[in-house]
Each structure stands twice: as structure tokens, then as C-alpha cells.
């Protein structure tokens, strides 16, 4: 199951997994892009907002057997991205709902299936979770919270692999919204990250947090989680 699967890294990873023979359930808010991707990949799709508990329940019911959950869907928050001194608190609450509460709700709903299959959870993080970038305080704080959820969940669920991955900058609509189209265009496409994520899933290393660089080292047997 991949959230945010209609474009960007979610779609790139879906393509890589489909080519590797995985059966996929894709979800995203944008119905047209989602169902087009699902048709191309011969995958199932359920459109909806992961912050909607009813949608989470539908997704969990659709996968009585589950080997991998990818929490990729994410919000950016207000644009232009405001400093914390003036960050709208209602907007931060909404962002926490989308980037932290919703992934945890989906994890809770699918854990029985993941435990049964000794499956894995892949939470997509960001360098903004650990670095102090001006304007990124709201978004970064949600990703830091998701990282900590990943760490604690790994300790509590030893039979389920839990990985948090910072894929680095990628040329996506979200990055363009944050930094502008011209700067975003200089970043590599999300397809450059998908092969390393595919190797991560296949190698099934110990739970941990990975950057793009440490992920490359780990999946070639040369390093350890960051």
C-alpha cells in the first residue's frame, strides 16, 4: 500500500515495485491521476484523504494481507512558508493531522495484517526533520515527529521492520511550491531514489532512519542506518 501514489516519489516507487512483481494498492486525493497510474500499473486504487478516518478504514479493509506500507502522502503547509514566529497555529494543526496523525492512524489500522506477514513500514521523512532551515519549521517539525514515531514503533513492534527515509531534494510539485519552479527544476527526479528504496525493501535491514546517502551504502552492504 502506497499513499500519495499519484505523482512524485509515491508514483516512482509504485512503478519500481510493479516492475518487481508486487501487487499494489495505491491511494491519493487526486482521482484522475491516481486511477490513471493504477491503470498503467495494473494496480488497485482507492482515492481519498488519508486524514479522513473513514478512508483509513476503507484502506485497511481492502488489504487483509499486507507486506509493505509506504507512508508517502504529505502536506507542505502555508506557502510562502512562514517563520515560526508568525506560523498560523490552525495551519500547523492541519499539517500535523496530515503528516503525523494520519500515517499513525493508517499504521494502527494495518498493523494486524503487517504483523501476520512480518511486513514492513516505510515512512518518508525529510532533512527538514533534523536541519534548521528558515521557513521549514512547521513542515520539519511534523517530519521530526514522524521520525520519532518510527523509532518507537520499531522498538514496540520487533517483528515489523520500520524504516524512516529522507530521500533528499527531488524535482516534485511540493518542492516547486516551497522554493519556486526554477530552483526545484535543478533537483533530481524522484525516479533516482526509487531503486534504492526497492533494494531496501528487498534487503530488509534493521529498522532505522536512512538518508539518501546512507540508504545507498546500506543497500550495497557498505554501511548502517544514520
TrEMBL record:
GO terms for molecular function: oxidoreductase activity. SUPFAM superfamilies: NAD(P)-binding Rossmann-fold domains. Keywords: Oxidoreductase. Coiled coil: none annotated. It holds the Pfam family adh_short. One of its GO terms (cellular component) is membrane. PANTHER family: DEHYDROGENASE/REDUCTASE SDR FAMILY MEMBER 7B, DEHYDROGENASE_REDUCTASE SDR FAMILY MEMBER 7B. Belongs to the short-chain dehydrogenases/reductases (SDR) family. This is Short-chain dehydrogenase. It comes from Sphaerimonospora thailandensis.
